[in-house]
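name: query_chain
kind: protein
chains: 1
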Amino acid sequence: MRTPPQHAHALVVGATGIAGSALVEQLVTSGWRTTGLSRRASGIPGAEHVAADLTSRTSLEAALGELRPTHVFITAWSRQDTEAENIRVNGAMVRDLLAVLGPQGSVRHVTLLTGLKQYLGPFESYGVGVLPDTPFLEDAARRPVENFYYTQEDELFAAAAASGFTWSVHRAHTIIGHVVGNAMNLASTLGAYAAIARASGQPFIFPGSLGAWNGLVDLTDAALLADHQLWAATTPGAANTAFNIVDGDVIRWRRLWPHLAAHLGVQPQGPSERPAPLEEQMADAGPVWARLVAEHGLVEPDLSRVASWWHTDGDLGRDGDVLADMSRSRLAGFTGYVDTERALLAVLDRYRAERVLPPV
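structure:
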């Protein structure tokens, strides 16, 4: 628990996302005055809410003109069709948000959530070309490709220099957390895949590459990420620094997949020479999901709000190890650690208890 500084007021941008919702929960629990910015309220007791269109400077000015937060946590982004559009839209979101808030004079610290595409490249050229050696180091040079993370960082740095607040950047790997409707949710995607496979009498086939099956990988628990952001926002020695943030352990999917299958009541099967992407496997899964919703009274009939096949295909389709070094955080005093397998199974249990996923 991170005790709030005096008169602290946190603004979480993207408060209903997989990272933002975990952050709002932790801020409220820790006693912070917390406002979430999102299209709809987070529903978390104790949190205030403000609605604004992050792509509209006018909307931001109207919504945030009198808010005067002290700590701003940016966890939102908007996926576009091309990386050029990602750069234009997501760079402007950070620029306009801080152009509205910075001149108010209240902001002390801004955190920006990005990820390991800092090292792997954006979706259009993901994992292509010469990549940095693993584990990825925070001081690795930017890759010579277009990447909206780089633009967001540059907008953050410029605003901090202009307005005098400190900043931190948090490069998470695949985030494991509890939320419905997120476009990049591996936990609920695998849970829905297992439920559909079980109902169809099919095996739980690892959809990715042999390299991903055999390689070492790390993940990021959403609650740990929230603690890391609060730590950086309230620790002077962490100011003006970019950090990797992962659980602290590593997994191999070939070891975890059978445990996951047993927990979800399905028969595990490893990969073949050619990946079996979930977007292909699940192309006709809608009627099966509708039957599961009716049989078990599930709360989300729209399968696309539970499963993001495309993103999980990307995560599990890579070759080789994907690991991030956390030396900067450790040397600066952050000691958080999460057991990835336990965290993943616990999130799946929560989804089942809340009837997002069916029982086994």
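note: The first strand starts at residue 9 and ends at 13.
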